[in-house]
Amino acid sequence: MPFHYLTKSRYLQGLQCPKLLWLSVNEPEAAGEPDEETEHRFAVGTKIGVIARERFPKGVLIAEDHLHLADAGRSTEAAMKAGAPAIFEATVLHKGLACRADVLQRVMGKMDCWNIIEVKMSSKVKPVHQDDLAFQRYCFECAGFNILKTSLMHVNTGYIREGELDPKELLTEEDITKAVSEKAADIGSTVKKLSAILTNSKCPEIAAGKQCLNPYVCPFFDRCNEPAEEYSIYELPYGQRIIPTLEERGIELLKDIPPDIKLTTRHEKMVLSVKRRKPIIDRKAIKEYLDTLVYPLYYFDFETINSAIPPFDNWKPYQTTPFQFSLHIQTKKSGACEHHQFLQKEAADPREPLMRQMIKLLGKKGSIIAWNMSFETSKITGFAERFPKYEKPLFALLPRFWDLMLPFKEGDYTHYNFHGSASLKAVLPVLSPSLSYEDLEIQEGGTASLKYERWLFGEMEAEEWDKTYRDLLNYCKLDTLAMVEILRVLYQNI
After folding, report:
1. In terms of CB atoms within 10 Å, which of 94, 227, 315, 453 comes out highest?
2. Is the pLDDT of residue 37 over 90?
3. Does residue 1 surpass a pLDDT of 70?
4. CATH number at residue 99
């Protein structure tokens, strides 16, 4: 078999699952190409790394990439001898191990001592980061380095951008030397075990389990996990308590749940719907809820971004922020709807123009219909906190919100083909099959957010943006049109 270094990424793969490690080395093509979301996440992570380097003046970057590790190792040695105060992408090779540190920082006053700093786009330290740094420390110490401190530099969610990005405020450094040291005792034996997997011609036999999703979704997930059968017990919403009981009794399908097992009201309705193959509708409860609507109706939906790097002033990292909305206005029951929308064409701060347009269009009275309204109301509250001058009209909107998801979430309208979900994309194709997200280029909110963020950060050419702009409008418009149709169906069923 060809030789493969045990790198820190492979080490972490092996900790998650030995089979993942073996497949990533021997059958990488089976994982497929990275999707747009993964590539964007890599791009943002790279940007965070570049920003972090600004905190270390006169630091030296090791330019050689992962395909030239031996050269990178020699460049690292040269930078050390030249007295570099910090080395970016510092590289060591030692007995089959290969490791690169985001930042290898010389300890001032102790020329032979170093700190290792790992840079992540995360907002906090996670257990996997401790394993990451433990491996780095092990490799560098095996290569002869005296490592004093290991720390994680991650995004500071308390930072508010004002003017140019401030690397010292955007990123915070957290010393995790103690936690890393506690893992040191086991690393040597783990390295030997994982190195043996790299040279084994046979794939380890590992059953599917929690490791398929933790700490990351395995790129080979479908290889080890058969799709769950339709109407299985795993479709029960919030079923963490009852599912283990059903598993112990060998029950796999909802239709096989016997009457002696105590279920929640929503679960009972779901099981009954599956057994009867028909919806279970509490018409009285739905009618009472519909009677609280006040016309005109405003069917409203935001699209948001959640960027690690604040794109504009008065913006925090990972602050979920609306950049687009769609609105259908209906003045009377069963009447025609008038459509409005907001999405800036230019890569400028969208917040104040969006707020002004939203306040104007939503008027002074009438129910504002949203799906899972707590999301929309929390974003409006966030706007009021960030922009006090709009506080009064924004807060005036909040009591008018009406949640169309509620009858489905509460089980007042239960259909076996919702498969236990109350999401808009689960309900719409059942109640209104003529409307479909499958015909759209953008089919879910995560993709919408990703594409808009790519545009803001200059990762998208103008021609691609022109098309994406139209796709974003079409996607958000369907969200509110879907609510119009679903409300119509509810009225038909009371």
Report:
1. 453
2. no
3. no
4. 3.90.320.10
pTM over 0.70: yes
Q: Can you say how many angstroms the Cα of residue 487 is from the centroid of all Cα atoms in its chain?
A: 30
* DSSP per-residue codes, 220-251: THHHH-PPPPTTBGGGSTT-TTHHHHHHHTT-
Task: Name the token pair of 228.
Answer: 């769950």
Structure tokens that stand for 427 in this block: 């309900």
Q: What is the CATH number of the domain that holds 373?
A: 3.30.420.10
Strand order in the sheet with 60-61: 60-61, 86-94, 97-107, 110-119, 146-155, 171-175
Reading the block at residue 155, the tokens are 């995004």
| Calpha distance 94→140 (Å, rounded) | 9
Spatial neighbors of 35 by CB under 8 A, at least 6 apart, are: none
Same domain, 22 and 90: yes
Pair 167, 33 in one domain: yes
**Taking a C-beta distance cutoff of 8 angstroms, is the pair 304, 326 a contact?**
no
Output the CA–CA distances (angstroms, integers) from residue 19 to 10, 25, 208, in the order listed.
Answer: 11, 10, 10
Give which of 378, 435, 375 is closest to 405, Cα–Cα: 375
* pLDDT of the residue at 32: 83
Q: At what angle do helices 36-53 and 445-456 cross, to 10 degrees?
A: 40
Position 184 scores a pLDDT of 85
Give the residue among 412, 432, 431, 408 at the shortest CA–CA distance from 420. 408
Give the number of other CB atoms < 10 A from CB of residue 128.
16
E strands in 65-170: 86-94, 97-107, 110-119, 146-155
Range of the domain at 326: 285-492
Residue 36 confidence class, pLDDT cut points 50, 70, 90 = confident
Helices 462-492 and 283-290 cross at an angle (nearest 10°) of: 120
Tokens of 232: 């299985």
Report the distance separating Cα 18 and Cα 218, nearest Å.
12
Residues 294 and 254 in one domain: no
**Cis (ω within 30 of 0) for the bond into 296?**
yes
Q: Is 359 exposed, middle or buried (0-12, 13-18, 19+ CB in 10 A)?
A: middle
Sign of CA dihedral 391, 397, 402, 404: negative
